[in-house]
């Protein structure tokens, strides 16, 4: 059995401990207190009179705060314990822990309370085998303080542990000798501050202060305002209402301010993705436009600020390209990993334009569209100038960094995720089918922006012609008539790769599919090879590389399914959309809590229960956002000028749902529906 893990988090800072609140390094899990890709606490173990503690219970108050109720000794001692402890842990701009020791006896009692403390300053990229670092330790008993510091050139990381109660401090921790009166208590507050300076010669202190100013706000107040800004869901299914609220809370937890100072953006998710990923952030913003559109504005600004402006083989950077990953750890700072700013993704750039246009449709924020004209045009230029690697007019990828670059540069980025049905791997550069859909959609949307906001009708005409030609050629070159679906990719010589995957749903979402072929794709998506009963598998069963526990070779991703359902509704395949959405909602409601990154692709009739995978992150921004997108798709929410259109198709058993105060350029609007598609739409309320 996997040990219990407990987390608290705020932005990209998080702490993962065991069920007692202790931190002891585990090479299989990112255990510790982390911020900006560095582990600032690697050891944090509480003892009373030399004994480790055991948990009676835990109160997970919210994502940034939890309490552990503990007693010393083994389980057999619980009933007669004369002493118990409460650890109240929280994260805001720092790590906080209040320790309360309670004397339950009728006599005064003396205890030795010991907290072992250590910091290895490991980079998140090396958790399985952290290297040994020369960490200096400063003991300051007068200030009740213990300081750990690591320096490598201008790269400096420091952990400062401070106690409010008098304490004996040594290089390995803090010791309290306490006396508690009968039925009394003893309390100390521990504050763990982190300090960072420099990353590859860059001073990060100014950006860090802005990040801290964001998280210094009262966390409860911030969460309350966040939930108040989101639409209110009223449902006859309590589990659905609970899942919706959990998604909103998780999205609040997964916001942070990158040190580039462009507002809050979503990180990928706990535990491995606590950083800015261009793809994850864009998809999350697309998923949440009907609910929390503020994420999109700051994300667009951040990504435009980081847009590639040179040729850099080490980081796969090219002019106009949108960043794939932004990291602040030591490995990134010194080039041991190319992730300080890594551009190895071929889909982020067209998706940036898609988000920019979709954001305007919902918000009416023409000012931002005009401000980001240059980054948008650079992104559109990149598709043809750098993305067309073989000159055949298709968007392809091939890393410039053969040593460290990612082989597959779409969202299916596992090395073997792009394969023929018989298991062969195609050559490079690869033109995956969803990239063509994204490029087509970006050109169409870029044309609208050019005509309506950039006063450039000639450019708009050109983009429209290119989009139409791309769609025509795609439907000729990628279509497999005998199999009745589109190829997963094209080889460099144009040979189609016949793997069947969930990618065909992304094609529906992009609009590149010919109308008469949508029904065949829908049939595949709900057929037994792709549809598990919980959702659509990433790779169809029966193919050589199919693996129900393989991330991109058979597992089920909520984020993937959200785009698929949106695509099916775009082509009016409503029954199939409702069936898939129902499976994902059933999975989320059955598991409870945060929506996982992915689940196994086992058939629902076999397992009867969604099987979680140990490596799957939870919470994940685009999983939580995926549930919101599914809800918006089922209600058929779509902006049209100054109006919100609503056309619900709810799965059987959903009953009646209402979504109140949907934000947009219309002010706020309500919509509600019932399964079988009965609808009442309320008049928008302007503000």
Please give a structural write-up.
30% of the residues lie in helices and 25% in strands. Strands 3, 6, 7, 8, 9, 10, 11, 12, 13, 14, 15, 16 and 17 form a 13-stranded antiparallel β-sheet that branches. It is globular. Helix 5 (294-305) packs antiparallel against helix 7 (348-363) and helix 12 packs across helix 14 (558-570). Mean pLDDT is 93; it is low at 677-683. By secondary structure, the chain is of the alpha+beta class. The protein starts with 5 loop residues before the first strand and ends in a 6-residue tail after the last strand. It is built from 17 helices and 32 strands. Strand 30 (656-664) and strand 31 form a beta hairpin. This is Glycogen debranching N-terminal domain-containing protein. Residues 10-190 form the Putative glycogen debranching enzyme N-terminal domain.
Oligomer: single chain
Strand content: 15-25%
User: Any idea what the shape is?
Assistant: globular
Q: How many angstroms separate the termini?
A: 53 Å
Poorly predicted tracts of residues: 677-683
Q: Give the helix proportion (percent range).
A: 25-40%
How many beta-strand runs? 32
What summary fits the major beta sheet? 13 strands, antiparallel
Mean of all residue-level pLDDT scores: 93
Radius of gyration in whole Å, from Cα?
Answer: 26 Å
InterPro entries: 6-hairpin_glycosidase_sf, 6hp_glycosidase-like_sf, GDE_N_bis, MGH1-like_GH
Domain Putative glycogen debranching enzyme N-terminal: 10-190
Domain Mannosylglycerate hydrolase MGH1-like glycoside hydrolase: 436-587
Protein name: Glycogen debranching N-terminal domain-containing protein
